[in-house]
Please model this.
Amino acid sequence: MTHILQARPLTALAFARYGTVVEAPAGTGVAINAGTTERFELVADLQLAAAGGRATLALFRSQARRFPQPLRELERHALGSQTFIPLGQHRFVLVVAPADGTPAAAVLEAFMTDGTQGAVLAPGTWHHSLLAVEGGDFAVIERVAMSVDCDRCELDRPVAVSLAD
Model:
């Protein structure tokens, strides 16, 4: 029997155990560029330098997925974070599980961005690959090194993620 996973809205509080939500903050930032720009520090350390790693900025051009979307496996990057930021108004779904152990279908959570939010997945967080609701471009910041940092696991039963009505 397929486990149905309902995507809920992405909020900083609900997502905190898996990483950081990237969104325009309320309030004022630090004035720079002769007062024409405000700077906001969003994430102090992306944790990308472990075991000789370095940061890379990539562009992912993603096709829209059909929902409900079947899920078969998850992946994680134990040595560094992975950041997804839409370039434009592109919603996407984050399917995640805690870093400890091998994830089971019952512990998965799904979050849908509002199209302006991005996310930083904490090192070790199990997650599904990018699930774009609308196709488009995404800036991705991640760790690269001589050896690939990507573990994969198959889910213990079929899962399908669906969007809220």
In short: The CA atoms of residues 57 and 141 lie 5 Å apart. The helical segments are 12-15. Residues 12-15 form the longest helix (4 residues).
